């Protein structure tokens, strides 16, 4: 029975075999990897991953798709977790001693940013992440300081991860085709991120990018003095998008001191 994609779940199923194999090559699954796939959908990527993996965990919200997965795969090889990925405890997936979790998925575009932040909480326990996301979101994730795409998402994720846009996927690769281009991003947690309180960094970054057209001195007025900015290595006349991650971290570390 054909599954009808549901808009409320942001379902766009990847069907292009060439793209699927390109993604699998990028992930390079190994037999003993502890891997979880978010939103397996109709299992196009799931089946290919299981050609290399001994076992795969998946997180799926759609009950109809959960039933389909349980029917079509050996439960000893495919462990299905029914529920919302935004609420799922990814740290609960068993990992071999000394090993780390690998996370993959075609993420629903309507929850991509919250899901990325949810996963950031377990970054030290993750080996890598490979995701299909809206191209515009990936461009913001990997943007360098000085460009219009550099913003809150860039800073908060680049503080924790090394990221790379691997390749672009056109709408024609999906059923139904989305109205935007997609892209594959590789995210590797940094072994030693700059020491910083995440909540303070979030507070500074949110304030700084709330008025992008103003210089940073005006954006963070009331939070930092001009001398505070200078002491943190920040040019008070710079626009927020021109301030690199390490300087935002330096500001966050001055907050409340």
Automatic annotation (TrEMBL):
The keyword RNA-binding applies. GO terms for molecular function: 16S rRNA (adenine(1518)-N(6)/adenine(1519)-N(6))-dimethyltransferase activity. InterPro entries: KsgA/Erm, rRNA_Ade_diMease-like_C, rRNA_Ade_Mease_Trfase_CS, rRNA_Ade_methylase_Trfase_N, rRNA_adenine_dimethylase, SAM-dependent_MTases_sf. S-adenosyl-L-methionine binds at residues 12, 14, 39, 60, 84, 106. It is found in: Cytoplasm. It catalyses: adenosine(1518)/adenosine(1519) in 16S rRNA + 4 S-adenosyl-L-methionine = N(6)-dimethyladenosine(1518)/N(6)-dimethyladenosine(1519) in 16S rRNA + 4 S-adenosyl-L-homocysteine + 4 H(+). Keywords: Cytoplasm, Methyltransferase, RNA-binding, rRNA processing, S-adenosyl-L-methionine, Transferase. Residues 19-191 form the Ribosomal RNA adenine methylase transferase N-terminal domain. Its EC number is 2.1.1.182. The keyword Nucleus does not apply. Belongs to the class I-like SAM-binding methyltransferase superfamily. rRNA adenine N(6)-methyltransferase family. RsmA subfamily. Specifically dimethylates two adjacent adenosines (A1518 and A1519) in the loop of a conserved hairpin near the 3'-end of 16S rRNA in the 30S particle. May play a critical role in biogenesis of 30S subunits. This is Ribosomal RNA small subunit methyltransferase A. It comes from Noviherbaspirillum album. The gene is rsmA.
């Amino acid at each position: 029975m054909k599954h009808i994609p549901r808009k409320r779940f942001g379902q766009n199923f990847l069907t292009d075999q060439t793209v699927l194999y390109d993604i699998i090559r990028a992930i390079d699954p190994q037999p003993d990897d502890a891997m979880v796939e978010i939103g397996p959908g109709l299992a196009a990527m799931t089946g290919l991953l299981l050609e290399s993996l001994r076992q795969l965990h998946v997180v799926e919200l759609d009950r109809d798709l959960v039933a389909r997965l349980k029917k079509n795969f050996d439960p000893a090889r495919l462990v299905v977790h029914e529920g919302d990925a935004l609420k799922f405890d990814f740290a609960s997936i068993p990992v071999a001693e000394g090993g780390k979790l690998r996370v993959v998925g075609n993420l629903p575009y309507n929850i991509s940013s919250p899901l990325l932040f949810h996963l950031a909480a377990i970054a030290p326990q993750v080996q890598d992440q490979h995701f299909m996301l809206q191209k515009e979101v990936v461009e913001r994730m990997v943007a360098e300081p000085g460009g219009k795409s550099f913003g809150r998402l860039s800073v908060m994720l680049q503080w924790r991860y090394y990221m790379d846009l691997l390749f672009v996927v056109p709408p024609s690769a999906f059923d139904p085709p989305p109205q935007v281009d997609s892209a594959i991003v590789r995210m590797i947690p940094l072994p030693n991120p700059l020491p910083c309180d995440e909540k303070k960094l979030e507070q500074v970054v949110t304030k700084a990018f709330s008025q992008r057209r103003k210089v940073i001195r005006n954006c963070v007025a009331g939070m930092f003095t001009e001398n505070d900015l200078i002491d943190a290595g920040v040019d008070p006349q710079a626009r927020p998008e021109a301030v690199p991650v390490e300087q935002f971290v330096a500001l966050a570390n001055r907050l409340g001191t």
